[in-house]
């Protein structure tokens, strides 16, 4: 325990005992100059250490308070947010073919249904990042949950393709805030657990994707795609109701000069984790009055990192959602049309949904493998190797038409790219300082959405014309992104989040 010693800035730490060190007039068993006899107990000085300063930072407090019940609760909150996001994204692989059959829309319009969601996400990512840096992570996530639920529910009653495109675009606009939940989560994690815990968030993403496939298998053939949209909005409603209990980032409070609120949050962590609260004064390292901006991301010290991360994130989204959409095309392409006059309609059968579920389950081993590698080999090498492995997997699609082999190839590729996406989510908040962290993640997310906007025209349009050309495009992007990972200037394994 830390003990105040008069006349010093520091503390003396005496194990198991709290006592003020006697003044220079007090001695053990002797009479002072005033004539009073003081009996002071003897202590084992081997347990005493002098701390040179009585200040601490948020990073030091988070590391000292460790991982406990506070982080478990936050994991469930943020995990629900990711699960809801995953369900909205997985809908896209089912919604396009369903609309193609029911409304007889063209392949380009089918791709547009997917593209407009990512357009909304791209346009809003920097907006949500700036909003989070200015007003806090919690208000932004609260608004995000409300808007997602509202627009998701309204999408189910869209009377025409035009209305559906508008509403799905607004859904995408709200989803653009979801990456801020990772920023909030990472800022409450001790250094040793941060990489593993952020990657474990992908478990909730994979859970949401699997749940959506099962839901689609049960709902679409019987009730149609409108009921699928209605039911899929339920987790968003739950998240919106729970956001009042979300904690605000202590780093955000300190960077805004609200140390009292930051201390309250840290005391709550100490209480939930059953750890003693640190003594002393809370300070911020590297204080700055500059708010996050794109211009700051492109400063001389961060320009190379930012540009490479933008390309890596764009490639991640392009490759991930491309594989998701290609899986639906591969499994449904041999089905006979059940709609007269629409010979190009290939509705998914139960066996197709089951194969989609198997490939989606691949995200779980992909996550745990990434957890193992990322803390041993580092973030950069892990991402570079995974991009290479993904390129090999998609090339194998062209060498066989056997259903079992294709499912195995897609299983491996899905696991690799899912783990890679989460590795990027670990690295990005670590490499940016606090005042740029949200806008940094938001900027990367915007470029990721650009890649996702383009991928439907490769996975759903070009793939129908030439499987080989579509696969070559994905392999080329993955190989270039692997090189970009190697050239990232910083390795962040084992580092504290910068103040």
TrEMBL record:
Domain Major facilitator superfamily (MFS) profile: 74-493
Record's GO cellular component terms: membrane
Pfam families in the cross-refs: Sugar_tr (PF00083)
One MF term in the entry's GO annotations: transmembrane transporter activity
Subcellular location: Membrane
Cross-referenced InterPro entries: MFS_dom (IPR020846), MFS_sugar_transport-like (IPR005828), MFS_trans_sf (IPR036259)
Membrane topology summary: Multi-pass membrane protein
Major place of residence: membrane
Record keywords: Membrane, Transmembrane, Transmembrane helix, Transport
SUPFAM superfamilies: MFS general substrate transporter
Transmembrane segments: 108-128, 140-159, 198-221, 227-246, 307-326, 356-374, 405-427, 471-490
Family affiliation: Belongs to the major facilitator superfamily.
Protein name: Major facilitator superfamily (MFS) profile domain-containing protein
Lineage start: Eukaryota, Metazoa, Ecdysozoa, Arthropoda, Hexapoda
């Amino acid at each position: 325990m830390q003990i105040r010693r008069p006349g010093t800035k520091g503390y003396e730490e005496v194990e198991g005992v709290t006592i003020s060190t006697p003044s220079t007039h007090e001695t053990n068993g002797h009479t002072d100059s005033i004539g009073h006899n003081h009996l002071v107990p003897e202590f084992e000085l081997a347990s005493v250490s002098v701390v040179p300063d009585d200040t601490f930072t948020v990073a030091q407090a988070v590391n000292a308070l460790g991982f406990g019940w506070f982080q478990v609760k936050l994991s469930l909150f943020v995990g629900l947010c990711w699960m809801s996001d995953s369900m909205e994204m997985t809908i896209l692989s089912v919604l396009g073919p369903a609309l193609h059959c029911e409304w007889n829309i063209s392949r380009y319009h089918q791709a547009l249904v997917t593209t407009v969601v990512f357009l909304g996400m791209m346009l809003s990512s920097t907006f949500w990042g700036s909003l989070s840096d200015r007003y806090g992570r919690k208000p932004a996530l609260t608004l995000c949950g409300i808007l997602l639920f509202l627009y998701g529910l309204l999408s189910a009653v869209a009377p025409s393709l035009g209305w559906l495109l508008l509403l799905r675009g607004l859904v995408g606009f709200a989803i653009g805030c979801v990456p801020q939940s990772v920023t909030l989560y990472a800022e409450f994690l001790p250094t040793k657990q941060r990489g593993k815990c952020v990657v474990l968030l992908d478990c909730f993403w994979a859970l949401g994707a699997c749940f959506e496939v099962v839901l689609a298998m049960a709902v679409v053939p019987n009730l149609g795609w409108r009921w699928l949209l209605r039911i899929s909005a339920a987790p968003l409603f739950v998240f919106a109701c729970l956001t009042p209990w979300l904690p605000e980032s202590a780093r955000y409070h300190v960077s805004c000069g609200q140390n009292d609120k930051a201390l309250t949050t840290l005391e709550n962590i100490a209480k939930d984790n059953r750890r003693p609260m640190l003594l002393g004064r809370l300070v911020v390292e590297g204080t700055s009055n500059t708010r996050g901006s794109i211009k700051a991301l492109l400063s001389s010290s961060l320009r190379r990192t930012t540009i490479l991360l933008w390309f890596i994130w764009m490639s991640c989204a392009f490759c991930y959602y491309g594989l998701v959409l290609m899986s639906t095309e591969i499994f449904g392409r041999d089905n006979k049309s059940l709609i007269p006059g629409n010979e190009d309609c290939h509705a998914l059968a139960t066996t197709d949904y089951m194969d989609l579920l198997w490939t989606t389950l691949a995200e779980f081993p992909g996550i745990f493998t990434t957890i193992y590698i990322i803390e041993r080999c580092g973030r950069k090498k892990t991402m570079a190797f995974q991009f290479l492995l993904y390129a090999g997997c998609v090339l194998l699609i062209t060498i066989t038409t056997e259903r079992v082999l294709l499912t195995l190839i897609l299983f491996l590729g899905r696991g690799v790219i899912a783990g890679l996406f989460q590795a990027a989510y670990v690295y990005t908040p670590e490499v940016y300082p606090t005042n740029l962290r949200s806008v940094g993640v938001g900027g990367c997310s915007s470029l990721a959405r650009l890649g996702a906007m383009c991928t439907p025209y490769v996975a759903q349009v070009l793939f129908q014309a030439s499987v080989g050309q579509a696969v070559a495009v994905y392999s080329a992007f993955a190989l270039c992104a692997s090189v970009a990972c190697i050239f990232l200037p910083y390795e962040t394994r084992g580092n504290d989040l910068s103040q």
